[in-house]
Every structure is written in structure tokens, then in C-alpha cells.
Amino acid sequence: MNGPEARSTGLLAVEKRPLAAMLAALLNFEPYRLMVCKPRHLDIKRDRGLTVEWEDGSTSFYSVAYLRKWSPSAEARTLREQIAKNPLTVLPASAVSGGKPLTIVDAEFVGHYAIKIHFSDGHDTGLYSWEYLQEIDPARQAPSPSAESPLPRERHG
Fold first, then answer.
1. How many CA atoms lie within 13 A of 25 on its CB side?
2. Of 62, 60, 95, 77, the residue nearest 151 (C-alpha)
3. Of 17, 56, 85, 122, whose CB count within 10 A is highest?
4. What is the full per-residue pLDDT of the chain (157 aa) written as tens digits?
């Protein structure tokens, strides 16, 4: 940094910018995104689920039913919130399989950050980002009183 926009205070060069510009830069900085591990390999078994080998060497497995239950779609999130508030919530017809086994019909990459999964019940509106898959990883979930808990654990920080 040189010129009228910077001043030196010994070992530290301080940039002179309006406070609003500095705050905007801080608000747009998302350090947690820098720590998201990307997948090295994805393996989908239509009747079993998704196995992800992460770049850090760890592996995660998500069953078809688990992926459908934790769909990041707005519809599924709303349903999970309703069930959390009222466990007697009536499930919509779209949430009931009708006796047929739930399978993965198709999947497609969305950019370099997510996968979109098409289920046999017609659901296909959720984008499973790498970050979201890590959040809902069954192996990383803290033990809870109910294995059927409708919401992932809260993120703090």
C-alpha cells in the first residue's frame, strides 16, 4: 500500500478507508466457508444412499431415507420446524412413500458446491451443499434422546 490511502505505523501498514467500506468488507467475509471440506469422490447406490469421501480422508454415508428427511428444501425445513413445535403434526401426502421403497432416481452437480438429488417420491428441490452434508453427517451428529430428532443440531459461532 503506497500513496495517500495508506500510512505506516512501524511494522503495520494501515489502509485509510471509510468505516462503512471496512464494515461491508467484514460483513461479506465468511471464514467458515474457507473450512468446508470438498468431496474427493461421490458414490451413489440408488437403493442405499450416498457415500462421500472427503478431501481430508474421512468418509460419510447418508442413507436414502436420511437424505430425504434432511432435505435442505424450504418445504422440508418448514415441515421439520412444524414437527419440532408440534410432534403431532400431520405429514403431507408428499412425505409418505405409499408403500414403495424410497430410492434415488438421479443426481446432478450444481456448480462446484452442491449436489441436487431426485428421489423416487418426486422430491427434487433441495440443494445439498458440501457444507450442509457435513453439518448433517450422521457420524458427526451429537447423540440425542431421540434418533428421529427433526432438526440438525444448532451451529454456534
1. 6
2. 77
3. 17
4. 454 444 544 444 445 556 655 555 555 554 444 468 999 999 999 999 999 999 999 999 999 999 999 999 998 899 889 889 988 877 665 555 567 899 999 999 999 999 999 999 999 998 999 999 999 999 987 544 344 444 444 443 3
Full-model pTM: 0.65
Residue type, 4: P
Cross-strand partners of 9: 12
Q: Return the bridge partners of 63, or none.
A: 49
Total Cβ atoms within 10 A of residue 18: 8
| Residue spans per domain, the chain | 38-135
Whole-number Cα distances in Å, 83 to 38, 62, 91, 124? 31, 22, 9, 21
**Which long-range contacts does 94-98 make (Cβ < 8 Å, 24+ apart)?**
94/121, 94/122, 94/123, 97/121
